[in-house]
């Protein structure tokens, strides 16, 4: 897997150079996606039986952090598109074959908020509606959409599911005009009464229980980690990467910056600047360290065949939202200490600042939900949430 990371690192100067262009075009350059694919990055979480690497999640997340440190939008798309290979491995084998059978390099985008209408029909579901924020959808030929299945007439309870649809079943509407993550092309997916067979659906309850149909063909420990653990870290890691990129840009800039209010005095000599850099570095390191510890423990337990304890799963979500919070705090501190020239369009500091704050508003980063779950667990109260 080091070869994949080495390939990613070789691309960083190009991604850094393209960052403003990516923002201006409001989507990744196809050449960027092609170059990332050629490193093997999108195969890191893909099952080996389809030519994937079935790598340790930390290898994938390390690559995400590196990419996002060069370009926030590219890191975001790489992460959320790259993690879908892991989720598809949980679907019934028939769905996996339909996506990867002819082309193992096929990619998927997603939009999980259940904003559409789902109707039970013979053999599957009728799906209709509009789903927003499908990052990287222009570079994918399938989409994963979240939806609530209403109770059945036979007493079957309601369910929250992910539905897998090919590009022929939806259209993409270009609506992505934003202040941050502008290069992610996170446009709307519109579906008009598409039929989705049962085998192309996956219950969030199954992913929470870590018991999914795809584990029969993909029994490895990677595919026995909770969805909430993998997916939430795929959202927080790009933000840690953006904070890392902002830190590097700030340090490089501050080494040569002369304070206008103190003629001839370099900003690097200001003890307040030194303290802010130390605080930002500590926050970024803390966010990344907790993520690493938790992911290693998850993989160690699943590799040993041990059931994942709920306190660990709750800690993962606690540290995930705290990791986002620490990264945002670091970016804010660096931005505030960068001076007025950092406001100029095209500078990396302001772009990382906008991108990180835009990533923060993703629903999975809401601290109250995750921290409340952790508190309930500590107090011995019942938990009923699939996102843990």
From TrEMBL:
Residues of the Acyl-CoA dehydrogenase/oxidase N-terminal domain: 15-100
Domain (Acyl-CoA dehydrogenase C-terminal) ranges: 235-366
Matches recorded under InterPro entries: Acyl-CoA_dehydrogenase, Acyl-CoA_DH_C, Acyl-CoA_Oxase/DH_mid-dom_sf, AcylCo_DH-like_C, AcylCoA_DH/ox_N, AcylCoA_DH/ox_N_sf, AcylCoA_DH/oxidase_NM_dom_sf, HsaA
One Pfam family hit: Acyl-CoA_dh_2
Keyword list, A-Z: Oxidoreductase
Family as reported in the entry's similarity comment: Belongs to the HpaH/HsaA monooxygenase family.
Protein name according to UniProt: Acyl-CoA dehydrogenase
Organism per entry: Actinoplanes couchii
